[in-house]
Specification:
Layout: E1 2-3, E2 13-18, E3 21-26, H1 37-51, E4 58-63, E5 72-74, H2 79-88, H3 92-108, E6 114-118, E7 121-123, H4 125-128, E8 135-138, E9 143-145, H5 159-164, H6 170-177, H7 183-188, E10 194-195, H8 201-210, H9 216-226, H10 239-245, H11 251-259, H12 264-267, H13 269-273, H14 278-291, H15 296-313, H16 320-330, H17 348-353
Parallel strand pairs: 3-4, 4-6, 5-7, 6-8, 7-9, 8-10
Antiparallel strand pairs: 1-2, 2-3
Helix pairs in contact: 1-3, 2-16, 3-15, 6-14
Length: 370
């Protein structure tokens, strides 16, 4: 076993090679492996190092477990950092999103098999470092979501790209509600590839480390050989109704449809959506629908524009995102003061402002993405 020195995150990302594979372990279990800028830098460094190393045939990524802590692959980004950095005008906030989205793109275009073991919580930034994987493995403990509208943000890290490619209007449903789904629905909706019992993961990792691989395809075949049939569906069986309700032209139209719903689960959703930022729900809906016609690189550039507006167009305490994080994670009063306060008060001009890039194309921070 050869350990790869990673200089940024002080052990929050571990990397080593064993046999013919590279293994990356997120090692921040006390925070469900929420990503910091330092962790993003170490993830990027490991992948770039192994990309050009012919001895590494494939890469396996997982989250460490610790007794007494929740099980997670990665619960997202460090939202407390977002809050403090935004209020302080810390330029590392810009660095965080530029480097995170660059990492997301690197994973999608990585030339070697990248295998994500998505055990436990997989949300937000965790989706960003797993959806581009060559093989996405879920377990009975997988809890998957893009819950950014809870904090007045939008489903970023390429969320526009991969959610918009879910069947029908599932992308709008997942983006607006932040609904948590399990393994069966994730596979059915194209957000995971195969299923493995969590109890089988240690033996899988041991065999991958010990088994010689002539190429990355052999490593993926070794994983698939241990996988099992996916568990039963829950939300995916409701596809017809989801498509009907979430095909509305705008958020107000979606709410009208849900308010008329005869399905009990759908009738509960207006109350859920009314807790979200009206403005950022409208921005999210526009994001998902624009992204259907975009490449991944163009979607990430759009999302970089959006996140800049989230923290700069409406800066400091005027930011919906800063206010959402305050209410959810800082003061924890669960009472965000959204502006505008209602869906009906959001104008098209407010939404379109978010889609005007703050940068000319030649100066965009993600101009290098192919």
């Amino acid at each position: 076993m050869n350990h790869l020195p990673l200089p940024h995150s002080d052990g929050l990302v571990l990397a080593h090679t064993a046999g013919d594979l590279g293994f990356i372990t997120l090692n921040r279990p006390q925070a469900l492996h929420a990503l910091s800028l330092a962790m993003i830098r170490d993830l990027t460094e490991a992948l770039l190092t192994w990309r050009d190393d012919p001895a590494v045939k494939a890469v396996v990524v997982r989250g460490a477990t610790q007794e007494g802590k929740g099980v997670a692959f990665c619960a997202g980004g460090d939202i407390r950092f977002f809050h403090t950095a935004a209020l302080a005008g810390n330029p590392q906030l810009d660095d965080f999103f530029t480097e995170e989205y660059s990492l997301n793109h690197l994973i999608h275009v990585y030339p070697k098999p990248y295998i994500a073991l998505m055990d436990g919580v997989v949300m937000g930034g965790g989706m960003g470092i797993s959806q581009g994987a060559t093989l996405r493995v879920v377990t009975e403990r997988t809890k998957m979501a893009m819950p950014e509208t809870n904090i007045g943000l939008f489903p970023d890290v390429g969320g526009g790209y991969f959610l918009s490619r879910c069947p029908g209007h599932v992308g709008e449903f997942l983006a607006l509600t932040g609904q948590v789904i399990g393994a069966g629905d994730a596979i059915a909706w194209g957000l995971a590839d195969t299923y493995l019992d969590s109890g089988d993961l240690p033996a899988l990792l041991e065999s991958l480390a010990d088994q010689p691989c002539e190429n990355g395809e052999q490593a993926m075949a070794a994983v698939r050989a241990r996988c099992k049939a996916a568990p039963p569906l829950a939300w995916a069986e409701r596809r017809d109704a989801i498509d009907r309700h979430f095909s509305g032209a705008d958020v107000a139209g979606i709410l009208v449809s849900l308010n008329r719903a005869t399905e009990s689960w759908a009738a509960e959703l207006p109350a859920v959506l009314r807790k979200r930022s009206p403005l950022m729900m409208a921005v999210t809906l526009e994001q998902i629908r624009r992204a259907r016609e975009m490449s991944l690189a163009d979607d990430l550039r759009m999302e970089r524009d959006l996140v800049r507006h989230c923290f700069a167009l409406r800066s400091g305490t005027a930011s919906e995102t800063v206010e959402g994080v305050r209410a959810l994670a800082v003061d924890k009063d669960q009472n965000p003061r959204w502006n505008p306060a209602t869906v009906e008060a959001v104008t098209p001009e407010m939404v379109q402002d978010f889609f005007r890039s703050p940068w000319p194309a030649f100066a965009h921070p993600l101009r290098h993405l192919a």
